[in-house]
Amino acid sequence: MKELIEELKLNRVAYLLEIMEKKDFDSKINALKKLEKVKITPNIGLFLIQNSTKNYGVNDNNGGLNASILSLCFKNYYDVYTDAIEKVYKNLLPNVQNKIVYLLTTVDSESALKLYVDLVLKNYKDSDFIPVSNLFERPYLYDYLFPKLYKALKFKNAKNNILILLNDYLAEGIVPVEDLKKNKKIICDALMRVFNIALKTNFKNTFDALNDEEYINLRFFLEICINIESFVSNKETSEALEKLLNKKDNQLKLFIIDNYYKKNKEVKESIIDQISKDNYSRYALYEMLSIYDKTDIMKDKYKEASVISESDFSINFGIYCNYKEDPKNIKYIDKINVNGFDYYIFKFSLTYTYNSSSEFLTNYIFNMVGMEKYNGKEITSEFVGISGGYDPNSKLHLVSRKLNKFLFAKINDKDDIVLVAQKLILDETKVDETKKTNIKNKISKKLNKLKEKEKQIEESKKVKIEKVEVKEENVKEEIKEKNEEIPQEKENTKESSKISNLFAHLLLSLFAIFIIMLISCMFFVTNFSGIGNIKNQDSVSVKSVKLNKDYKYTLIDGKEIFNEPESEYYVLLYKKDGDKSKYYTYINEYAKYDKKFYFVDLNDEKNKFLFEKNDLNFTVNGDRLLKVKDKEYDYFVNGKNNILKEMKEYLDNNKLLIYNDRFREYIKDKEIYINNIYSKLYID
Description:
With 684 residues, this protein is an alpha+beta fold. Helix content is 54%, strand content 10%. The chain is built from 25 helices and 8 strands. A hairpin with a 2-residue loop joins strand 7 and strand 8. Helix 3 packs parallel to helix 5 and helix 13 packs parallel to helix 15. It is globular.
């Protein structure tokens, strides 16, 4: 039956591909949409790959439909695809080949990654672009990529994406020192190709450098190379950095200084002075030196708050207008405090040759709508600029900005600059206050819900305790009644034989022991395993998912349950292999709280001892979640449904605690910046 269904699906896929090959463009697109809804099995995927080289014609000279067909196979990748892709690759259009290389980076398949490396090394020697997709976000793939991918650094193209990938993996701290030593020459040669191009560039100042689009594209790789050089270098790269320090791009010098400090290398005072004088670099220098606790190296006149803030203003203005306009005659006016934050006010001018056809942004800055009569004429306008939102209570108040605002406006000679600045700040902060109020209301509603849930949890715990106490009391009364009966029984049986008395006492003793054991069991079931074996629980429905790649699946022997290195961890014992993926939904969440999980396969012969009496002093008859603390039991839960429910309750309670902590942090500081509210407090 399955074979028949599979054959019918294949026939439908073949029919849709025939439409895409022979019909008009609209029909092709409709067929593709229908094809996207088909569940791709290994056989269907192979069929699609085999047909991916066909010419699908109309309006598709770049192979867009071919690429779309191949993309379907990567929704659920099977290793059998790898050989098939390798066979058809050479017959694909260049755009589709690039797409395939990109798609290979999106799956965690050893065979796919191997093919990716092979294709890169064979086909991208002369390319300025090597597809790397989201490999940046998956440093755990290093061992599958870089033993061979270092060879790609031999390519003569300077803008090599593999450099970016290596830089990211270095930042993650996962690149072995031995690998860097083995590939030192390859890496340093790749760095020098970028350094040599940069050494040929010349600019009058930092602003001109930042205004050159070709150079900016190169500088992205420059910054990466400078960082890599702090990990692996030779005499040639070191000399190149010394020469780059003489260039007019002061922002680039900041990356070299960072490189030097990482290597515990001193920086010349003259270099620090050069950067300090530059309005487009001074603030970033001050920020870096603050991180390294080296602000003393800056001259006092460059560390004045107004001077640092002026640089902050210039950088922000440059970013705002894409370094198309350079503020002139910047003059510090005053400092004002609004809502507890410091703002610095500046007056500056911009000279501009007005052109009615110029880009919108520039005309907007100058507020020149309806001024066509000045077309082609040079105009100078005065502006007020504001930098700030600095926290005066912070140790580094110019670096630590909770409410940073960059504001500016055109002014006339008659305008009171300070009053204009105050209005700008107040208008902006009103918007923020409205946003803040809305967020506070959302937080309050969510907090109330969480408090109600917390209350329900506490009441539930209280009910459980009360039940145990009632049961305890009932049993105690029963024992008391039995003990009271004993004297009367003795009186009535004075003439009984010693053997009969002994036998009666023995029965009563056994009964008392039984009652005590019953109490213990009741207490254990209610307070310990009920987490433990709780009957009549609501069923928990959870889909099977994959375990996150950053959460290592660690399988251990049953005998090692209490012998793992962590002081606190969880052990999941599972009976059915297929069921363990049901737990992954919650285990992936546990990982966010740094909770370590180990797994024990109860189907394994070496773990069968757990079903019988053993040295570990516990037996199982199915799935069990066990928490170990200091090499001993903390608690355990039996049964798949009970385990899922316990996991869910734990995570819900943990989120509650985290949320409450964050809300208390918000209450403590009522003036916290709105972005911090989003990032630290609000939980979707």
